[in-house]
Amino acid sequence: MRSMIPDYLTDVLEHVEPDTSGATAGYIPELADAEPEQLGAAFATVDGQVYAAGDCDAEFSIQSISKPFVYALALADRGFDAVLARVGVEPSGEAFNEISLEGGSGRPLNPMINAGAITTHSLVGVAGSDPAERLERVVDGLSAFAGRQLEMDESVCASEMAFAHRNLAIGHMLRSHDILTEDPATVVEGYIRQCSLLVTTRDLAVMAATLANRGVNPLSGKQVVPEPVLRQVLSVMATCGMYDAAGDWATQVGIPAKSGVAGGLIGTLPGQIGIATFSPRLDAHGTSVRGVSLFHRFSSDMGLHVMEVPPAARAVVRSNRVVGSGPHAIRVIELQGGIRFAGVERVVREVVETAPAETRVALDLTMVSSVDDVSRRMLLEIVRRLTLEGHGVTLVDPESILPGPHPGGGRVTVVNDLGETADLVADEERAAPRA
Amino acid sequence: MRSMIPDYLTDVLEHVEPDTSGATAGYIPELADAEPEQLGAAFATVDGQVYAAGDCDAEFSIQSISKPFVYALALADRGFDAVLARVGVEPSGEAFNEISLEGGSGRPLNPMINAGAITTHSLVGVAGSDPAERLERVVDGLSAFAGRQLEMDESVCASEMAFAHRNLAIGHMLRSHDILTEDPATVVEGYIRQCSLLVTTRDLAVMAATLANRGVNPLSGKQVVPEPVLRQVLSVMATCGMYDAAGDWATQVGIPAKSGVAGGLIGTLPGQIGIATFSPRLDAHGTSVRGVSLFHRFSSDMGLHVMEVPPAARAVVRSNRVVGSGPHAIRVIELQGGIRFAGVERVVREVVETAPAETRVALDLTMVSSVDDVSRRMLLEIVRRLTLEGHGVTLVDPESILPGPHPGGGRVTVVNDLGETADLVADEERAAPRA
Amino acid sequence: MRSMIPDYLTDVLEHVEPDTSGATAGYIPELADAEPEQLGAAFATVDGQVYAAGDCDAEFSIQSISKPFVYALALADRGFDAVLARVGVEPSGEAFNEISLEGGSGRPLNPMINAGAITTHSLVGVAGSDPAERLERVVDGLSAFAGRQLEMDESVCASEMAFAHRNLAIGHMLRSHDILTEDPATVVEGYIRQCSLLVTTRDLAVMAATLANRGVNPLSGKQVVPEPVLRQVLSVMATCGMYDAAGDWATQVGIPAKSGVAGGLIGTLPGQIGIATFSPRLDAHGTSVRGVSLFHRFSSDMGLHVMEVPPAARAVVRSNRVVGSGPHAIRVIELQGGIRFAGVERVVREVVETAPAETRVALDLTMVSSVDDVSRRMLLEIVRRLTLEGHGVTLVDPESILPGPHPGGGRVTVVNDLGETADLVADEERAAPRA
Amino acid sequence: MRSMIPDYLTDVLEHVEPDTSGATAGYIPELADAEPEQLGAAFATVDGQVYAAGDCDAEFSIQSISKPFVYALALADRGFDAVLARVGVEPSGEAFNEISLEGGSGRPLNPMINAGAITTHSLVGVAGSDPAERLERVVDGLSAFAGRQLEMDESVCASEMAFAHRNLAIGHMLRSHDILTEDPATVVEGYIRQCSLLVTTRDLAVMAATLANRGVNPLSGKQVVPEPVLRQVLSVMATCGMYDAAGDWATQVGIPAKSGVAGGLIGTLPGQIGIATFSPRLDAHGTSVRGVSLFHRFSSDMGLHVMEVPPAARAVVRSNRVVGSGPHAIRVIELQGGIRFAGVERVVREVVETAPAETRVALDLTMVSSVDDVSRRMLLEIVRRLTLEGHGVTLVDPESILPGPHPGGGRVTVVNDLGETADLVADEERAAPRA
To answer: PROSITE patterns, from UniProt (chains A, B, C, D) (predicted)?
Structure first.
C-alpha cells in the first residue's frame, strides 16, 4: 500500500497553485526576485516521519520564522525572569515592524514583533558573551532545531543590512530605554544574520515538530531546549505570531504559527505535528498567500484547531466487575485510553460510587494509552485512600504506564495481568490474614 | 472512599482566602456593597458531575461573563456571516470599556469588549424580533446554558441603567456607524438586563462545561447551541476574553476564560471541564483577584494549559503480528488509545512499511478509545487501498468505534473479536476463491 | 468715485467660481440638497461698513461657526475658570467629530471640536438655567453678534436630530465623565438647535467683525461680550478652528477662522475686519472648498496674515528740537503714529539719550494716532521721571490721546498746541522761578 | 533721566527668583550640573537696542531654540517646496521627542519636534553639500542671527552624542522613509553639534529680534534670511513651538516662542521685539519654569499677545475740507497714523461718500506713519479712479511714505506741503485748462 499522506499533500498543493495573488517582498532584490511560483509543504511528526511535497527542498531565508526559536533559546539560556523583564507577551494588534513599546518601560510588547525579536536576539547565550559567540549560539541553536547545520545567505544578509534603517531605528529606541545595553547596530546586525539563515520547507517542518515534541528534535533525538520553555513559546505564537491578523487566524486556523517574508510559514500542534509551507507571494500582512490557504485546508481537513473539542472518548472506565467470590473476590476496575484530568475525575467518581465491599481492589491499566501528571497523582491518591480504608490494592500495568507507584502512606502491588492478582490473593491468604 | 476533588477545592480556597487585595466594583452600590469575603469555586465535567466549594450557591450578577454565551446564541441564531459582518474577532489590547471600533467600518473589534457585546445582544433571535422577544431569547438561552431558569436582579439592573452613560455612548456610536440599526438606548437596556441575570458559581461551572461539551448542557443533555459555534466562541475567549491581560493569561494560565465585575470568572477546557470561581474584589483589569490566583493554581496543578503538550501516548500500534500460517495467515495490526491525526499517520506508516504479504489483513480496534474525523477517514482509506491491492480486510471493532465503515471502492468485514476473523477465513475458503 | 472693494470682491468670486470640486455635506438631505453653485463673500469693518457680493443674502445653517461665539457667551456667563475646568484649549490634530477627550479627566481638548462645543453649550447662561432658557440665551447671544434676530431652520434641526447618533455618543461619554451633569440628550438637542440657526454671509461677516471689535457689534454698537473674552476666543480659533488642517491654515492664511458644514467660513483680524464666505461644496476636512481659496486670496492680497510683519513705521520720534533759547528754551520731542511697546521704548531711549538740559520739556502728541496701555503707562513714567529730575513737563495733546495724565508723583501740563506751551513758560517766568 | 526698562526687567526677575520648582535636564551631566539659580532676561528691539538683566551674559547651549532658525535657513537655502516635501507644519500635540511621523509618507509633522528638526538640519545649504560644509553653514547662519561668531560646547556635544539613542532611532526611521537620504548618524551628529552651540540670553534676544525684523539682524543690519521666510517660521513657532502646551501658551501668552532644555526661551513679536530668558530648571514639558513665568508677565504687562486687539486708532481720516473757493477750491483729505487694510478701506469710503465736486483733490499724507502694501495699492487706485473721473490729484507726501506713486492710467502730482498744492493750482490755471 502507498501512503495517502503524500497524495493528500500533492492534492492540496495543486488546489492552491492557481492562486497567483500577492507579491514577493519588495524591499531587497533577493526577496523581490524570488521565483514566485515556488510552492512546497511538509509535515513532520513527533516521532520523526517527514512528508514533503512540491519545492520542499528549495532553500530560502528563514526571516521572522526564526523568532519563536530564538525566543526559546533565550528562555533556555537566561531564564523566564530575565527575558520577561525585557520583552512582554501581549499581542500588539499592529504590523510586524511597528515599534510597539510599552509606555514608560520601553519594553517591546512581545517577541514576535521586530522590536521584541531584536531584544530576544541580544538575550541568547550567557550574559556577557560577545556578538560573535552569541551569533554562533543562535546559528547552532537554530541548526539543532532543524537537525542539520544551517548556512547563511550572505547576499540576503548584505542586502538586509543595507536596508536595515527601520530595524536600526528600533534598535536605537530600545537602547534609549536601556532594553538593549550594548551597541544597537551590532545587535541588529546579529538579528539580520539570524534572519538570513537558509532553510527548506522540510527543515521548517522539523523545527516546528521539535516545538511540538517538548523540545526534542524528532530526527536527532536531541533535547534542543528544556520542556518548560515550550508552553511559553507556543502560547506566544498562538497570541502574537500572526500580528494584526491574530484573531482571524485563531478562530479559523487555530494553529500556533509564524510566517516569514521569504514565503515560509510554520505551525505547531503540541504533541502532534509540525507543519511548514513555502510560497513567496505575500498578502498585506506580509504572510504567504498560498501558505495561508494551505493552513486553512490543513486545519479544516485534519481537525487540527486547538479549540477543536476532541471526539468523545470511549468511557475511561471500560469495565467494573468482581472477579472471584467470597473472601477471594476482587473488585476489578478496568480503565482504557488516554487519561487526563477529565478522565481521572471519572475514575475517582467510579471508585467513590462503587464503594467496594471487597477487600481486594484492582485497577487494570492494560488498555490505558497515556496518563498525564495530574492523573498520575490522582490515581496514586485513589490507591492511597483505598489502602487507608483497609483495601489491598493491585495495579495491573504490564507496560508500566504508571511508573513509580509509591503513594504516600499507601501500599500497592503491581502485576502484569489479572491472573497474577488472583494468584497473589491466594498466596496472601495462605500466608497470614491482613490487618 | 471519599473523592479527593472536594478536598482539593477546599484546600485551594483556603490558600487564596488570606488575599484581601483589590476592591469591589465601585460604580453602583449593589456591586460596591457586595460582601467582599465571599469565595467559591466549582468544576463541572462534561458528563455532568459538579464539584463545588465555598460560597458556591451565592447569587451574583453574571455581568460580562454573559458575553461569550450571548455571542454563541447570536452565532446560532443569525449564522457566522451575519455576526462577523458586525463584530470582529481581533484582540483590542485595551480595557473592556474602550470603544475600540475598527477605523472606517465602525465594527467593534471583538465581542468581549462592551461595544461588541452590545452589538452581539442586538443579534440574538430572529432578525426583526422586538426587544422583549429578544431579551426573552437571551434569558432563555443563558438559562439553557445554566440548566435552570435564571432570574434578573432588578436592583442591579436599575442601578446599571442609571450609570449607563458610557454604554449609551458606545450604543450611539455604534448606531452612527449603522452597526446598530435600531434605537441604541433600547439595545443598551437589553444588554444591561442580560448582565443583571443572577447566577451562582455552580451555574457558571455548568455553563462553562456546556461550552466544553460541544454545546450540550451536561446536566440537561440539551443541545443549547450547535457544535460549530463552540470553536469560534472558545477561540475568541482565548484571544480576547481577558482584555489587556490577554498575553499574561495565555502564557501563564492558558485556559479560555471570561470574567465579570461582580467577581465571577469562568474557564473552559474543550472536551474536559468547565471551571468557575467567585470572589468580588477586583484587580486593575476588573477581574477577581482571588479568581485569578485560583485559575493559576488550577492550570498548574491539573495540567490544564491548552498549550501543554499532552503526555507521550503509548504507541498507537500496540502490536503487528501474523496469526495462523500458510494461506490461513492473517496479518493483525492491533491499535490502541485515542486516535487523532498524529496517531493515524503512524498507522498508515505501519501498514506501508509492513507491506503485508498475507491475503488477509485485520485492524484490531478493540483497545481504541476514540477516533476523530480525519482519523476515521484515513482508516477507511487504508481499508480501501488494501482492498484495491487484493487484500481481504477485517475490522475488529466490538464497540463500533468506527461506525459506518463503507470505504468508497473498498470492502470490509466487521467482527467483534479476532476469533471470528479466523472463522471467516475458514468459511471463505470453504466457499469459493475470492474474485 | 466708486469704491474698488466691491469690484475686488466680485473679481475674486469670479476667480473661484469655476472650481466645482468637493461635495455638499451628505449626512442630512437639507445639506446634501443645497444648491452647490451658491457663492458669496462679505467684509465687515470694525466701524460697521459691510461689503458683500454674490449670494451674500442667502440663508444657511450656521453649524460649527456657532462654536466660537457660544464659547464667548459661556466665558462671559460663567467666567474663565468654570469654562476651562470643563473644556481645554489644546489643538487635537484630529477631525471635528473625534471624541478627543483628555485621558483621565474626560475634558474635551478644545471648544471647537464637537465634544467641546456640546460642553460649551451646556455652560451658557446662569448655572441652573433650564434648557429652554439656555437655548434662548444662545439664540439671543448669537443674534446680538449678528445684529438681527436669527431664526431656526426647523427642517435642518429635525434632520440633524434624526442623525445625531455620534453627538449623542459624545454627550453620553461626557456625562460618564461628569463633564456634563445633566441629561446628555437634552444638551445635544440644544446644541443641534444652536447649529440650525439660519444666517447669511453678511450676518457672519458682522459676527466676525464683532469679534474683531473687542466684542462690540459694529452695527448696533452693543457690547455683546466683555472685551477680555475676545483674546481667548480668537486664540482658540487660531489654534483649533481648522481642526487637522490647523498648520496649513496658520502658515498660509494666518487668520483665526472657523468653518461650518453648510458651507460658511469666517475669519477675524483683531482690530481690523470680519470676513465671511459661503459656498456649500466641502473638502475632506469638511470646509468649503471655494471658501478656503477665497481666504488664501484675501490673506495674500490684503496682507491679513497675523504673522505678517507690519510695514516699518515712520519713526515714532518725528522730531527732537529746542524751541526758544536761554531760560525760555523748551526741549520739544514730537511723536507720531500708533504707539505700542516697541514705539514707546524708542521714546524712552530718545529722552534718555537727549538728557535734556532745558528746564522745560514738551512731548508733542499731536500727530500720534493711538497709544496702547503699556505705552500710556510708560509715557506717564517718562513724565514722572522728568518731573522728579526737576523738569517742567508739558504734553501737547489737542485730542486727548493720553487721557488722565496724572503720573504718580509727577506733574504735567496739558496744552492744545505748542504755542500755548511757550505762553505758559512765559507766564511761569513772570510768576516765580521754579525750585 | 534713566530708562525705566532696565528697572522693569530687574523687577520681574526679582519677582520670579524665589520659584525654585522644576529641575535641570537630567540626561547629560553638563545640563544636570548647570547652576540652577542662574536667571537672565533680555529684550532686543528691531532697531537694535538691547536691554538685558541678570545672568544675561552667561553662556549655555542653544539646544532646541536652534530649530526655528535652522528652519529659516533651510527655507532660504532650498525653498518652500523642497522643505515642505520633507517636513510638515501641523502641530503634533505630543512631546518634543515623540517620533510623530505622518502615516504613509513618514514626513515629520513639523520642524519643532526632533524628527522635523533633524530633517531640517539635513536641508541646510545647497543640495549635495557635505556634512562639514553643511554644519559650517548652520554655524555661520546661527551666528549671523546672533550677530557674533558662536562657538560650540564640545563637552556638551560629546555627552549628547553618547546619549543620542533616541535621536539616532528617529534618524534611522527617517532614513527608512527616505526623508533622510544619507547616513542618519551623520545627520544626527550635525544636529547635535547645532544644538551644542553656546549662546547668551543677550544673543537669543537679538536672534529673536532678527525674526521680528523681517530677517534683518538689527545690530549688524545684515539680511540673514529673506523676508518671505519669516511669516512661515513665526507661524510654525506659534502653532508648534510649545509642543503639547501649545494651547495654554497661545491663549495665555500669545507670543510665538521656542524653548531649549538648557533653560533658554525666546519669543518674537513680529515688527516689535525679540525677547529671551534663561533659567535652567525645567517643567514637565521641558521648558524653563521661570522662563514661562517671565513670558506670562511680559505678555500681560506689555500687551504683547498677538490676539490682543490693538487700541482703537485715531480715525485715519484726520480732516476732510475744502481749501480755497470757486474754481480754485481744493478738496483736501488729510490722513494720519499707520494705514493697513482696515484704514485704507475707511479712506476709500470717505472719498466715495464725499463725491468731491471740486476739480482738484489732495490727499495729505504728512501725518501718516506707515502704509502697508495693500493700502499703498488702494491709495493709488483711489488716485487712478479720481483721475479717470477728471479730477486733478495731488499727494502731499513730504517724507515719501508712498514711494513711486504711478497709478496705472492715473496721474498724480506730489508735493511737500499743501501750500505747494495751492501754488500748483494757480500755476495750472495760469497755463492751460486740463484735458
So the answer is: STAS (PS50801)
Tens digits of per-residue pLDDT, C144-155? 999 999 999 999
Taking CA atoms, what residue in A is nearest to B385?
A1
In a domain, B335, yes or no: yes
Interface probe, candidates D1, D3, D8, chain C, greatest C C-beta count within 10 A: D1
Provide the 10 A C-beta neighbour count for residue A70.
23
A336 plus A231 within the same structural domain = no
Distance CA C353, CA D156 (A): 42
Classify residue A312: in a domain, yes or no. Answer: no
B26, with CB counted inside 10 A (0-12, 13-18, 19+), is exposed
Domain membership of residue B29 (yes or no) is yes
Q: Residue D344 — pLDDT band, cuts 50, 70, 90?
A: confident
CA C143 vs CA C55, C75, C198, C217, C264: distances in Å? 20, 17, 10, 10, 17
Is C161 an 8 Å CB contact of chain B?
no
For A138, the domain range is 4-302
Cell of B219: 446536566
Of C166, C168, C172, the CB nearest to B166: C172
Residues from chain A that touch D169, judged by Cβ atoms under 8 A, are: 168-173, 175-176
As a whole number of angstroms, the longest Cα–Cα distance in chain D is 86
Q: How many domains does chain C have?
A: 2
| Ligand-binding site membership of D102 (annotated) | no
Residue whose C-alpha cell reads 494666518 in the numeric block: C254
Partner residue facing D370 (CB), from C235, C256, C314: C314
Q: DSSP labels for B77-114?
A: HH-HHHHHTTS------S-TTS--BPTTT--BS-TTSH
D269-315, pLDDT tens digit by residue? 988 899 999 999 999 989 999 999 999 999 988 888 988 876 666 67
Q: What is the pTM of this model?
A: 0.89
Question: C45 with C194, same domain?
Answer: yes
* C71 catalytic per annotation: no
ipTM value: 0.89
Q: Over the stretch B56-71, which tens digit does the pLDDT of each residue have?
A: 999 999 999 999 999 9
Cα separation, A20 vs A289, whole angstroms: 8
Mark yes or no for CB contact A348/B5 under 8 Å.
yes
Residue of B nearest to A315 (CA): B369
- D243 is annotated as contributing to ligand binding: yes
CB contact under 8 A, C386 and D307: no
In whole angstroms, what is the distance from residue A424 CA to residue A422 CA? 5
Cβ–Cβ contact D15 with C under 8 A: no
Binding residues of B: 64, 114, 160, 167, 191, 243, 261
Sequence-distant (6+) residues with CB within 8 A of C143 are C149, C150
Q: What is the CATH number of the domain that holds C18?
A: 3.40.710.10
CB-based contact C40:C201 (threshold 8 Å): yes
Query: Largest Cα–Cα distance of chain C, in whole Å?
Result: 86
Interacting residues of C207 by C-beta distance below 8 A, sequence separation 6+:
C65, C69, C142, C145, C146, C199, C266, C274, C276
User: In this structure, are D17 and D121 located in the same domain?
Assistant: yes
Cβ atoms of residues C260 and C62 within 8 Å: yes
Please give, rounded to a whole number of angstroms, the shortest distance from the CA of A168 to a CA of chain D.
Answer: 6
Kindly state the DSSP code that residue B288 receives in the 8-state scheme.
Answer: B
Residue B309 belongs to a domain: no
CATH number of the domain enclosing D388: 3.30.750.24
**Closest to D135 (Cα-Cα) out of D86, D81, D66:** D66
D261 is in an annotated binding site: yes
Which of B249, B279, B302 is where one domain is finished? Answer: B302
**pLDDT averaged over 10-residue windows placed end to end, chain B, 435 residues:** 88 96 92 95 92 96 98 98 95 68 83 95 94 97 98 95 93 94 96 98 98 95 95 93 84 95 95 94 94 95 83 79 88 89 87 92 89 88 90 90 71 84 65 48
Nearest CA-CA distance, residue C119 and chain D, Å: 18
